[in-house]
Write a structure and sequence with these properties.
One of its GO terms (biological process) is regulation of DNA-templated transcription. By secondary structure, the chain is of the alpha+beta class. It starts with a strand and ends with a helix. The protein is elongated, with a radius of gyration of 24 Å. It contains 11 helices and 4 strands; from the N terminus they run ββββααααααααααα. A 4-stranded antiparallel sheet has the order 1-2-3-4. Helices cover about 60% and strands about 10% of the residues. The chain folds into 3 domains: about 55 residues, Transcription Regulation, Sacy, Chain A, CATH 2.30.24; about 100 residues, PTS-regulatory domain, PRD; about 110 residues, PTS-regulatory domain, PRD.
Length: about 280
């Protein structure tokens, strides 16, 4: 790889023997280099093609980002990969750096976005959420900028969507979050209460919803024998109001997505609803 230009000490534009241009990342790949210098392959941690159709926006993004922000973004990704034990796709390097650049600008201008899904995201993706909080701490430590609370959600989405082995795409993530919000709103309206989002039962409820929705999206039925009808009738009688809420949830899912709740799911969901709403 022959050096063309540096974006900072650790990010550079190079070309290979066939004159194809690449964006490369690695410790020191852009430090004190001159045009035409050879970059050893072992020094390159990540690389992706700066294709003609996309080179202009890629170059614009890199040129518009403060080198310090780009360095912090790379460091955040390395730490997140280590803590989550995953490998992110190459695209996260640009998307995260670009996002952080604008997030820092908004923070400096005291602009924040309202977001109502933080608690759901926190419970859906607890490890990625913790990585997002750590990223905010890194930005503060390195750049002396305190990002707003909403960034916990936005950065979590970046970490979820940037995982190579994660089969839940952003559209599915947003769909799941919306559905969980709808179910929680339905339960709260049915019982005329506000659920305690810090409680263990709330966490269990959201976790159960998450795995149920993932199975539905993948059309992967719960492989268990149907629950005994006597037991289901007992639960319906003992936890009547919770079961009524589950019936409303079942109707919502069937009407909106054509999903059917099995007797097993109705039983488990009733118990979760009862636990999360009891005082």
């Amino acid at each position: 790889m022959k050096f063309i230009k540096a974006f900072n000490n650790n990010v550079a534009l190079v070309k290979d023997d066939s004159e194809l241009e690449w964006i490369i990342m690695g410790t020191g790949v852009g430090f004190q280099k001159s045009k035409g210098d050879l970059i050893p392959e072992e020094d390159i941690r990540r690389k992706f093609v700066a294709e003609q159709s996309t080179r202009k926006p890629i170059m614009q993004v890199l040129n518009e980002i403060d080198p310090k922000v780009l360095d912090v973004s790379v460091e955040i990704i390395k730490n997140a990969e280590s803590s989550l034990k995953v490998t992110f796709t190459n695209s996260i390097y640009l998307t995260l750096a670009d996002h952080l650049s604008f997030a820092i600008k908004r923070s400096n201008e005291r602009i924040d976005y309202a977001e109502a899904s933080r608690w759901e995201v926190k419970n859906l993706y607890p490890k990625e959420y913790e990585a997002a909080k750590e990223a905010i701490r890194q930005v503060f430590d390195k750049l002396d900028v305190l990002l707003p609370k909403s960034e916990e959600t936005f950065l979590t989405y970046h970490f979820v969507n940037g995982q190579q082995e994660n089969k839940t795409k952003m559209e599915e993530t947003l769909k799941m979050t919306e559905l969980i919000n709808r179910v929680i709103e339905l339960v709260q309206y049915h019982f005329q209460i506000k659920l305690d989002e810090d409680s263990l039962n709330y966490t269990r409820f959201v976790t159960h919803l998450r795995y149920f929705l993932i199975r539905q999206m993948k059309q992967d039925a719960l492989e268990q024998e149907e629950v005994d009808k006597t037991l289901l009738e007992l639960v319906k009688t003992k936890y009547e109001k919770a079961y009524q809420a589950v019936e409303k949830i079942a109707k919502l899912l069937e009407t909106k997505y054509g999903w059917t709740l099995s007797s097993n799911e109705r039983l488990y969901l009733t118990l979760h609803v009862w636990r999360v709403t009891k005082r």
